[in-house]
Amino acid sequence: MSIKRLGIKRFLAGGFLASAVILLVFSLSVSKLPGNTERDAAKVSRAVSKRMHILDEYIGSALTADRRVWAGHNDVPSDMVIYRYIDDTLQSWSNQFPVRNDNIASRIVFPRLSKPGESIYSPLAEVTSEPSFVNYGQKWYLVKAKTLGSRKVIAGLEIADSMSEESPNGVNRKLSLGRNHAIVPLSESSGSAVTLDGRPVFKIVSNPVSGQSAAAHSMMIWLAIVCFIIASLLHLAGKKSMKRLALVLTGLFAVIVATYFWGENMKNSAKLFSPTVYADGQLFNSLGAVLIASMLIMLSIGCTFVTRNDIFRHILKTRRVRLSLWIYATCIFLLTAGIMVFVHMMFRSVILNSNISLELYRLNDLNIFSFLVYLSLISLLMTIPLLAQMLMPALKRLLGLRHDLFSAGSRTVTAVLFAAYMVIMTGMLGFRKEQNRVNVWANRLSIERDISLELELRRIEDKIASDQLIATLSAIRNSNSIILNRIIESYMPRASQDYDIMVDLFPENVKDNGAIAYFTEMVSRGTEISEDSRFRYMRDAGGHSLYTGSFAYYTPGSGVTMMLIRMSPKSNRENKGYAHLLGYSAPGDVLIPARYSYAKYSGKALASYKGNYSYPTIVDEDLEREIDEAVDGVVRMNGYTHFVNKISDDDLIIVSRPKTEDFSYIVAFLFLTLVFYFCLTLLTLTRIHPRHRESNYYKSRINAAMLLALVMTLIALASVSVLFVYRRNNANLKSSMADKINSLQTLLQARCRYVQDFNDFSAQEASVILEDISNTMKSDITLYTTGGKEFRSTTPEVFDRMLLGPRMNPDAFESIIYKNKRYFIGKESIGAKRTYFLYAPVFNAQGKMIAIMCSPFTDESFDFKSEAVLHSISIVTVFMILLLLARFIMATAVDKMFKPLSEMGRKMNEASINNLEYIVYERDDEVARLVRAYNLMVHDLYNSTRKLTQAERDKAWATMARQVAHEIKNPLTPIKLQIQRLVRMKKNGNPAWADRFDEISVEVLKQIDLLADTANEFSTFAKLYTEEPVEINLDNLLKEEVDLFDSRDNIKFSYMGLDNATVMGPKPQLTRVFANLINNAVQAIENAQTEAEEKGVEPFQGRIVVSLRLSSKDGFYDIVFEDNGPGVSEENRSKLFTPNFTTKSNGTGLGLSICRNILEKCNGEIFYSKSFSLKGACFTVRFPRR
Prior knowledge:
Elements: H1 2-32, H2 37-64, E1 80-86, E2 89-94, E3 132-136, E4 139-148, E5 151-161, E6 181-184, E7 192-196, E8 199-206, H3 218-238, H4 242-264, H5 287-306, H6 308-316, H7 321-352, H8 368-399, H9 408-446, H10 451-465, H11 468-474, H12 480-490, H13 495-498, E9 499-507, H14 513-524, E10 527-528, E11 535-539, E12 545-555, E13 559-569, H15 578-582, E14 597-602, E15 605-610, H16 621-629, E16 634-637, E17 640-646, E18 651-658, H17 662-685, H18 690-695, H19 697-751, H20 763-777, E19 782-784, E20 790-793, H21 797-800, H22 810-818, E21 824-830, E22 833-843, E23 849-856, H23 864-910, H24 926-987, H25 993-1023, E24 1030-1033, H26 1034-1045, E25 1051-1056, E26 1062-1065, H27 1067-1094, E27 1102-1110, E28 1116-1123, H28 1130-1133, H29 1151-1161, E29 1165-1170, E30 1177-1184
Helix pairs in contact: 1-3, 3-4, 4-5, 5-8, 7-8, 7-9, 9-17, 17-23, 19-20, 19-23, 24-25, 26-27, 27-29
């Protein structure tokens, strides 16, 4: 099986290596090959034909639909546009063309006076039934028209978008065109034509994007790197040796260094390697560089850990093992310290030198880079316990220290320490980073005026004052918008990008006291931007920056008309709507996130403020004392954290945010603790031996089943809880949006009670109404005609720049016009963001619909999404902790349930004739029946054993009696014969009887010795069942026996012992066994020496070696008796331990048989082999350790 696994690993390693090479070669070669435009043009032609076929189906559906119903389709793909006209009036639409004028009734072309840069020419008027490739705004379309009676459908398929972020060349991704190609009109001289129904419609040209060559096939390169790493790890897993480790580390180092330099070329095309995300020095000049270095460290240590056993074996083979172990331990310790330092420096650098947020309790600030940083940090921290575990064997040999760093307790402590470190670091360094950011905001807030704008105003104010067209227009009533566009396009094109500009006219022949008072206030407040300038700087009622300029124009017949220009930064809109979504920020201003509030104090009085916090109107003594006692300018009070910045002795800026609750830190800590614990547990699972898994088979299955049931229950509870919170938050959000749309609708209808049609709105009147309501409700407002076309907005540049189409959402239009809904709430995209838009009809006093209003919902007072996510994480974290506790309780319960079964198994394993124990189990359950059955079995077995023992004793005594009788009879017969012979000789008066007396006496004494030996053997056998086991120091016992026999000159004894080797057994019997084995060896050697002397050969020096050592069988000692005698012949080995068998002339044949019986009685064993070193006999006694 191991050979098969090794073959699979080799096969997989080779496969992944080959894949890596193929991917790398393919990515490098393809990126350098010139594009085949002919082939790509054919492929795109097929894709365009399929898309146009789908478009034709939608055209047919819209064309045949009843003219009185809405013909828009919700399922129209995003790259297709459908306009349906009824009598040349747009009636239904799906998606929109980026054109301001979608009217097809007129082809008159003349410039607008109000907007010189715009005409009323409609590009859709020229669309024919033949598909044509046209450009609308930033997009290119294939458009066609189809007519059926009074119905006309104009449809288009988006081909390219020059502002697209989805692909570098802007081509529709559904056309499957490579990024190194571009689409151009047929007028282009080069390229290959794309055809539709045999007609060329546009061309494809090869157009490698600058800076994209390295990123052209980055996915394949990343896959090649991953494949190489997997191949290297599999190669190392095949044979965990130091040679392979060196080879793998060299390959990984080369590949990762090459990846680092490859990333250097990706700076302009991949955010991961861009210094705008993170940069800290020349080496770590991007986040990708940091992650690559971390990956190299992690892989190197992981590979080294895998081969730790081979490394340690090489250390133990060195001449100076102890010195090598100290060097090894020092290197591991230094490496661990180095990784700790690297992790700390990396953690600190990423937090302070990047815009990446690592605070887990600020969910809205987290992104994919946060995940990558956490993944890298966790991986690096996981190498520390690996290194510590590598250090343990050295410490065990050097200092005797033993500890398993992957035990449950160690894993818990390690996870807690790592989690605490990360939470503390993110909290402290994140707060320091926040302080730096707030200081920047405060410094920018302290600069109230826009110097570049003021210089521009000084340059153009005389030109505005002398503009004759403006002077002429000022005499015309309601010419504000015309003058405004003249000023913007001729004098303030740049300023209009950052400022909202408004023009008010005050003719002298119109006596309006309110208007006069307003004009007087505007021209008298604030300060002049420079001496004798017409522009002034001031702050409005909300504390926002405001520039005003006053100009006087004289025209015959109308007299003097005063013109007031007002300029307010677009950032003043705060979170009213589009400004918040698009991130407007005027020069010198700062967009502070909605959860922050700020206040500016001048002379201890509140000058301006923003946000939800209730700042005091003056800096009283209590606040001043708190500020003076603040550490690092931070005050915590009223549930908020306040960052205090003193601009001067009298000026103060306070930026505040809600205080981060301790619960958020606790949740983050518990979450990270769980992550680290599970990572350490995964590392531990790889160290569990299959035998251990099998030994706990049923317990593991029960635990797994109960754990699965518990997990499913907790998942269900967590899901229900999260779903409940989500639905509750969604309901609250819908209720909040409904309240807002109702309020906007009520305010608008109150101001438009007597308006009969949207055409009755004058530009100035509509602007004033919308601005008024917009400022009141803190929301942008757009008015659409009852035909769904935009005609007034508080932020018209959104439509001028085609960030939003001129037509309202088709679903909203259908709901309000055709389904008569009171309002509509739906999500729409603006730029890269997606948010809710609120629509509602506007009625006059007679109940006639005069317009449809729209407002984006940007209220962040309730962050439902973050609340739901935080709630989910909190629930999951708490449930995971409960799961671990339940797992512990469950494991304890299962262990308790299995305890009688385990006890039964243990007692059954230890059961012997004299060791049968009952199980005490007091409960009356299913297990109790098994316990009772076992106890009954023990009782019966005890009785049967007792009877069997008695029978065995009787049999043994009978056998022994017969053997003793036989053994006694053997020497008695020659004794009787010899004595009878001696008696006859004496009786007969034979004088030789005296001489024979001495000879016969020697023989009789010899036979009597045999009788004594037989009696001793019989006595030993009888004691087998009577002596109790005691603790024996095996080493001392063997030394004593060897010393007793070590008194012969012809035999050399050697003993190799083992300290503290203790066993339990009958000491006299064991002594008998050891003495018998040594005596047999002595007799065998002396008999061989005697035979050598008789043959005239010089006798050899005898050697007997007794060894005590740990057995290869777990839980046993081996006592080995070796000699250099003749040994036992092959034919006699099978009979060696049989009673009555002996190879000695005067042996009884009971010695080895009794030795085996004694050892088997003690759960030991004895076996014979030929001595490898001495070439004689070798008896091995295997005895159980205590």
